Amino acid sequence: MNHSEVRFFTEDISFALKNKRKLRKWIGVVIGNENKLPGDLNFIFCSDDYLYKLNIEYLNHDTLTDIITFDLSEIEDEISGEIYISIERVKENSGKFNVSFYEELHRVIIHGILHLAGYNDKTPDEVSLMRKKEDYCLSLLPEILG
């Protein structure tokens, strides 16, 4: 029996995520669409400073970022991991990209899932495919959120 769970946490910020149950369902649909199995997923919403420190310590990147994904899968085709998201970056990027905060947050959430499913975003072709996948996944959300 496969027991999986999607959990949401905060680290060093005050943030209340809306529609957790429906977001869990959406994440499950996306994982299924990728022909993967759901494992344990922890989303940790944090500040720029917290994520910056992780970026330096674990990835040796001296930059701000909106997301860092750690793949913790131990079974092939299973999606398990920790996804750290800077709420400050998401807020800033939502303004920069002229979308709502929640639209940008949902894009970043699913971006992390797609990384765990094996998609990268290092080359222009990979970025293009990742964006198409994100757009498709976001198109499924209104139906689930109702």
Explain this structure.
This protein is an alpha/beta fold and 146 residues long. It has one domain: Metalloproteases ("zincins"), catalytic domain (Collagenase (Catalytic Domain)). It has helices spanning 20-33, 48-59, 87-96, 101-116, 124-145; strands spanning 6-11, 37-46, 67-71, 78-86. The chain has a 4-stranded mixed β-sheet, with helices on both faces. It is globular and about 35 Å long. The model has no long low-confidence stretch (mean pLDDT 95).
Defining traits:
single chain, 146 residues, alpha/beta, Collagenase (Catalytic Domain), four-stranded mixed sheet
Query: How many strands, what sense, and barrel or not for the largest sheet?
Result: 4 strands, mixed
Question: Any idea what the CATH architecture is?
Answer: 3-Layer(aba) Sandwich
CATH class: Alpha Beta
General shape: globular
Uncertain segments of ≥5 residues (pLDDT<50)? Answer: none
Number of H- or I-type helical stretches: 5
Side by side, the strands of the main sheet go: 1-2-4-3
- Gyration radius, in Å: 15 Å
Number of domains: 1
Give the amount of beta strand, in percent: 15-25%
Topology:
Blueprint: E1 6-11, H1 20-33, E2 37-46, H2 48-59, E3 67-71, E4 78-86, H3 87-96, H4 101-116, H5 124-145
Parallel strand pairs: 1-2, 2-4
Antiparallel strand pairs: 3-4
